[in-house]
Amino acid sequence: MQISINHADIQQTTYLKLFTMKKIGLLLIAMFSLSLAQAQVKLGIKGGINYSNIAGDLQEENHYENKIGFLGGVTANFPLVGDGFLSLQPELLYSQKGYQYQDDKVTIDNATYSIKGKRNFNYLDLPVLLRVNAGGLFFEGGPQASYLLGIRDNTEIENEGTGNDTKNWKKIEKDNLAELEIGYVAGVGYQAANGLGIGLRYNGSINHLAKSDPNNDELVNARHSAFQLQLGYTLGGSR
What we know:
elongated; mainly beta; Porin; disordered N terminus; 8-stranded antiparallel barrel; single chain; 14% helix; 2 domains
Protein backbone atom coordinates (compact mmCIF):
# COMPACT_ATOMS: atom_id res chain seq x y z
CA MET A 1 0.00 0.00 0.00
CA GLN A 2 1.36 3.39 -0.94
CA ILE A 3 0.71 6.54 0.99
CA SER A 4 0.83 9.79 -0.92
CA ILE A 5 1.81 12.96 0.87
CA ASN A 6 0.60 16.27 -0.41
CA HIS A 7 3.26 18.76 0.68
CA ALA A 8 1.15 21.69 -0.49
CA ASP A 9 -1.68 20.66 1.89
CA ILE A 10 0.80 20.30 4.77
CA GLN A 11 2.27 23.74 4.15
CA GLN A 12 -1.18 25.26 3.90
CA THR A 13 -2.29 23.61 7.15
CA THR A 14 0.87 24.80 8.93
CA TYR A 15 0.37 28.31 7.59
CA LEU A 16 -3.25 28.34 8.80
CA LYS A 17 -2.19 27.19 12.27
CA LEU A 18 0.52 29.86 12.51
CA PHE A 19 -1.87 32.49 11.21
CA THR A 20 -4.52 31.45 13.77
CA MET A 21 -1.99 31.47 16.63
CA LYS A 22 -0.81 34.90 15.56
CA LYS A 23 -4.37 36.21 15.54
CA ILE A 24 -5.01 34.75 19.00
CA GLY A 25 -1.79 36.33 20.29
CA LEU A 26 -2.68 39.73 18.86
CA LEU A 27 -6.17 39.42 20.30
CA LEU A 28 -4.81 38.63 23.77
CA ILE A 29 -2.42 41.59 23.57
CA ALA A 30 -5.28 43.85 22.48
CA MET A 31 -7.53 42.61 25.28
CA PHE A 32 -4.73 43.09 27.85
CA SER A 33 -4.02 46.60 26.57
CA LEU A 34 -7.72 47.43 26.67
CA SER A 35 -8.07 46.17 30.22
CA LEU A 36 -5.08 48.28 31.29
CA ALA A 37 -6.57 51.33 29.59
CA GLN A 38 -9.95 50.78 31.23
CA ALA A 39 -8.37 50.25 34.64
CA GLN A 40 -6.15 53.33 34.11
CA VAL A 41 -3.15 51.49 35.51
CA LYS A 42 -0.13 53.77 35.46
CA LEU A 43 3.44 52.52 35.44
CA GLY A 44 6.41 54.47 36.72
CA ILE A 45 10.05 54.48 37.73
CA LYS A 46 11.78 55.94 40.78
CA GLY A 47 15.13 56.35 42.44
CA GLY A 48 16.54 57.92 45.55
CA ILE A 49 18.61 57.49 48.71
CA ASN A 50 18.27 55.61 51.98
CA TYR A 51 19.42 57.17 55.23
CA SER A 52 19.57 53.99 57.27
CA ASN A 53 20.65 52.48 60.56
CA ILE A 54 19.56 49.69 62.89
CA ALA A 55 17.21 49.96 65.86
CA GLY A 56 15.89 47.68 68.58
CA ASP A 57 17.04 46.39 71.96
CA LEU A 58 20.71 47.28 71.44
CA GLN A 59 23.20 47.47 74.29
CA GLU A 60 25.81 49.25 72.13
CA GLU A 61 23.40 51.54 70.26
CA ASN A 62 25.86 54.44 70.19
CA HIS A 63 28.32 52.42 68.10
CA TYR A 64 26.02 52.33 65.06
CA GLU A 65 25.80 55.40 62.83
CA ASN A 66 23.59 56.24 59.89
CA LYS A 67 24.80 55.50 56.35
CA ILE A 68 23.58 56.51 52.89
CA GLY A 69 22.58 53.96 50.25
CA PHE A 70 20.86 53.82 46.87
CA LEU A 71 17.32 52.70 46.00
CA GLY A 72 15.53 52.42 42.68
CA GLY A 73 12.92 50.44 40.81
CA VAL A 74 9.50 50.35 39.15
CA THR A 75 5.96 51.15 40.30
CA ALA A 76 2.37 50.47 39.25
CA ASN A 77 -0.62 52.51 40.41
CA PHE A 78 -4.16 51.02 40.40
CA PRO A 79 -7.03 53.49 41.05
CA LEU A 80 -9.60 52.16 43.52
CA VAL A 81 -12.17 54.90 42.92
CA GLY A 82 -13.14 56.77 39.77
CA ASP A 83 -11.68 60.15 40.70
CA GLY A 84 -8.30 58.66 41.68
CA PHE A 85 -8.56 59.86 45.28
CA LEU A 86 -7.70 56.38 46.55
CA SER A 87 -5.30 53.97 44.82
CA LEU A 88 -3.16 50.89 45.40
CA GLN A 89 0.53 51.11 44.50
CA PRO A 90 2.79 48.03 44.53
CA GLU A 91 6.49 48.63 43.85
CA LEU A 92 9.60 46.56 43.21
CA LEU A 93 12.75 48.29 44.48
CA TYR A 94 16.43 47.53 44.88
CA SER A 95 17.41 49.01 48.23
CA GLN A 96 20.75 49.38 50.06
CA LYS A 97 20.39 49.52 53.85
CA GLY A 98 22.77 49.15 56.77
CA TYR A 99 24.97 51.17 59.11
CA GLN A 100 28.55 52.24 59.68
CA TYR A 101 31.20 52.65 62.36
CA GLN A 102 33.30 55.81 62.59
CA ASP A 103 36.62 54.90 64.25
CA ASP A 104 34.65 53.58 67.20
CA LYS A 105 36.07 51.62 70.14
CA VAL A 106 34.66 48.30 71.34
CA THR A 107 35.70 45.87 74.06
CA ILE A 108 36.11 42.18 73.22
CA ASP A 109 37.45 39.71 75.81
CA ASN A 110 38.68 42.59 78.03
CA ALA A 111 40.70 44.09 75.18
CA THR A 112 39.96 47.41 73.45
CA TYR A 113 39.69 47.57 69.67
CA SER A 114 39.20 50.33 67.13
CA ILE A 115 36.53 49.58 64.53
CA LYS A 116 35.48 51.44 61.38
CA GLY A 117 33.75 50.80 58.06
CA LYS A 118 30.31 50.06 56.64
CA ARG A 119 27.95 47.14 56.47
CA ASN A 120 25.75 47.23 53.37
CA PHE A 121 22.67 45.02 53.19
CA ASN A 122 21.23 44.76 49.67
CA TYR A 123 17.50 44.01 49.49
CA LEU A 124 14.75 43.55 46.95
CA ASP A 125 11.78 45.40 48.48
CA LEU A 126 8.13 44.80 47.59
CA PRO A 127 5.92 47.41 49.30
CA VAL A 128 2.15 47.36 48.67
CA LEU A 129 0.85 50.81 49.55
CA LEU A 130 -2.57 52.34 50.00
CA ARG A 131 -2.30 55.85 48.59
CA VAL A 132 -4.52 58.88 49.24
CA ASN A 133 -4.24 61.52 46.50
CA ALA A 134 -5.36 65.03 47.45
CA GLY A 135 -4.62 67.13 44.39
CA GLY A 136 -0.88 66.90 43.94
CA LEU A 137 -0.28 65.98 47.58
CA PHE A 138 -0.34 62.28 48.49
CA PHE A 139 -0.13 60.16 51.63
CA GLU A 140 0.83 56.48 51.53
CA GLY A 141 1.34 53.53 53.82
CA GLY A 142 1.29 49.76 53.90
CA PRO A 143 3.23 46.52 54.43
CA GLN A 144 6.49 45.57 52.80
CA ALA A 145 8.25 42.25 52.16
CA SER A 146 12.02 42.33 51.57
CA TYR A 147 14.37 39.63 50.30
CA LEU A 148 18.06 39.81 51.20
CA LEU A 149 20.15 39.64 48.03
CA GLY A 150 23.51 39.90 49.74
CA ILE A 151 25.74 41.71 52.23
CA ARG A 152 29.04 43.56 51.93
CA ASP A 153 30.85 43.81 55.25
CA ASN A 154 33.64 46.40 54.94
CA THR A 155 34.38 46.74 58.65
CA GLU A 156 37.99 46.81 59.86
CA ILE A 157 39.15 46.28 63.42
CA GLU A 158 42.51 46.72 65.15
CA ASN A 159 43.78 46.01 68.62
CA GLU A 160 44.46 49.34 70.32
CA GLY A 161 47.46 47.87 72.12
CA THR A 162 49.19 45.97 69.29
CA GLY A 163 47.70 47.45 66.13
CA ASN A 164 47.02 43.92 64.82
CA ASP A 165 43.75 42.63 63.44
CA THR A 166 41.76 40.57 65.92
CA LYS A 167 40.86 36.98 65.14
CA ASN A 168 37.89 37.25 67.49
CA TRP A 169 36.11 39.59 65.07
CA LYS A 170 34.30 37.84 62.21
CA LYS A 171 32.69 39.24 59.08
CA ILE A 172 28.90 39.01 58.94
CA GLU A 173 27.71 36.66 56.18
CA LYS A 174 24.35 36.11 54.53
CA ASP A 175 23.91 32.78 56.34
CA ASN A 176 23.85 34.69 59.65
CA LEU A 177 20.92 36.84 58.54
CA ALA A 178 17.18 36.44 58.00
CA GLU A 179 16.62 36.26 54.22
CA LEU A 180 12.98 37.37 54.37
CA GLU A 181 12.13 40.59 56.18
CA ILE A 182 8.63 41.87 56.93
CA GLY A 183 8.22 45.59 57.48
CA TYR A 184 6.07 48.64 56.94
CA VAL A 185 6.18 51.92 55.02
CA ALA A 186 4.63 55.33 55.68
CA GLY A 187 5.22 58.48 53.67
CA VAL A 188 4.12 61.74 52.14
CA GLY A 189 4.94 63.47 48.88
CA TYR A 190 3.90 65.60 45.94
CA GLN A 191 3.29 64.61 42.33
CA ALA A 192 2.89 67.14 39.53
CA ALA A 193 0.44 66.77 36.66
CA ASN A 194 3.28 65.87 34.26
CA GLY A 195 4.09 62.76 36.33
CA LEU A 196 7.18 64.00 38.16
CA GLY A 197 7.07 63.44 41.89
CA ILE A 198 9.05 63.61 45.12
CA GLY A 199 8.41 61.72 48.34
CA LEU A 200 9.74 61.15 51.83
CA ARG A 201 9.18 57.80 53.55
CA TYR A 202 9.98 55.95 56.73
CA ASN A 203 10.71 52.25 56.28
CA GLY A 204 10.82 50.04 59.36
CA SER A 205 11.25 46.31 59.93
CA ILE A 206 9.19 44.08 62.21
CA ASN A 207 11.35 40.95 62.42
CA HIS A 208 14.94 40.83 63.61
CA LEU A 209 17.86 41.34 61.25
CA ALA A 210 19.97 38.29 62.17
CA LYS A 211 19.48 34.63 63.02
CA SER A 212 22.91 34.60 64.67
CA ASP A 213 25.77 37.00 65.28
CA PRO A 214 29.32 35.57 65.36
CA ASN A 215 30.59 38.50 67.47
CA ASN A 216 27.79 39.11 69.99
CA ASP A 217 23.98 39.07 70.20
CA GLU A 218 23.47 42.66 69.06
CA LEU A 219 22.25 41.96 65.51
CA VAL A 220 19.89 39.23 66.75
CA ASN A 221 17.97 42.00 68.53
CA ALA A 222 18.36 44.56 65.71
CA ARG A 223 15.89 45.73 63.04
CA HIS A 224 16.42 47.89 59.96
CA SER A 225 15.29 51.51 60.12
CA ALA A 226 15.52 53.91 57.17
CA PHE A 227 14.32 57.27 55.91
CA GLN A 228 13.96 57.35 52.12
CA LEU A 229 14.03 60.36 49.81
CA GLN A 230 12.65 59.44 46.40
CA LEU A 231 12.25 61.04 42.98
CA GLY A 232 9.85 59.39 40.54
CA TYR A 233 8.15 59.66 37.19
CA THR A 234 4.73 58.21 36.30
CA LEU A 235 4.28 57.47 32.60
CA GLY A 236 1.41 59.47 31.09
CA GLY A 237 1.23 61.97 33.95
CA SER A 238 -0.43 61.74 37.32
CA ARG A 239 -3.93 62.77 36.25
